[in-house]
Amino acid sequence: MDRQQHHRLVTGMREAAATGDAPPSYIGAGGVDVVSRDAAAQALGAVVQLHFDKTVEKKRAADAQKQELWRLYLAFLLVLSVLLSGVATSPPGRLQCRHLWAPAGLLSLAHLAFYAAVAHHLRCLNGFRYQRRCHKLTLALAADRLRMLKSAGEVVAAADVEVPYQEPHQGYLGKFRRSWAVHFAFLIATFAFSVAAAVAILCF
User: Fold this and answer.
1) What would the mean pLDDT of 5-25 be, rounded to a whole number?
2) Mean pLDDT, to the nearest integer, of 7-34?
3) Across 118-178, where does the E strand assignment appear?
4) CA nearest 164: which of 198, 184, 141?
5) CA distance 44 to 158
6) Spatial separation of the C-alpha atoms in residues 66 and 78, rounded to whole Å
7) pLDDT, tens digit, for every residue of 64-109?
8) Sequence-distant (≥ 6) Cβ neighbours of residue 133 within 8 angstroms
9) What's the mean pLDDT in 166-190?
10) Would you state the pLDDT for residue 124?
């Protein structure tokens, strides 16, 4: 959706210029498309504004997802503490070692529910982070070309005004894989600890 907005903005400005609805822009000069400096500044300014607004929007969305994740972690730890305290304070004759399957099953269900919720929020968070990175890269490129206009003549090559939608290199995705690995390792560690605590309480 963000890439389409960028494409519609750039295409719309070119079509408006071609039909005379915008300041004179794309004209032929020796077989090379050129654009007036004022029209180029107007076009690049619109691109800069679009991607700046999108960067702020994605930052706020990512922050909201982080807060949801923290609340989810707190609720999960609260559920674990309630389950383990219930096992620890139960009368000796009610829960014994042979009843271990009950708390182990509840702990498994809690971890599965937590994993599903975290997976959803983490996908959203990583998606917002990736989109924000794309907008920041495109914004930086547009701002750099806008600065270059200060030393340009009355007309500039159209190719110098084009701002393709930028995406980070493949290595940037490794950041998201590491985030998944950390959350999954935390889930495994808490499950192992919880089951071991239930075994220690009931069987020893």
Assistant:
1) 52
2) 52
3) 155-157
4) 141
5) 12
6) 18
7) 999 999 999 999 999 989 888 888 887 766 667 777 788 888 889 9
8) 168, 172
9) 88
10) 93
Rounded CA gap, 169 and 91, in Å? 58
Q: Judge whether 59 and 134 are in contact, CB under 8 Å.
A: no
Better pLDDT: 16 or 199: 199
CA separation (Å) from 131 to 74, 87, 159, 203? 28, 45, 25, 51
| Residue 88 token pair | 């620890």
Residue with token string 């159209």 = 158
- 105 CB contacts (<8 Å, ≥6 apart)? none
C-alpha span between 107 and 130 (Å, rounded)? 33
Cα separation, 194 vs 198, whole angstroms: 6
CA 116, chain centre distance (Å): 18
* Integer Cα distance of 200 and 9 in angstroms: 63
Q: How far apart are CA 54 and CA 139, in angstroms?
A: 10
Separation of first and last alpha carbons in the chain: 58
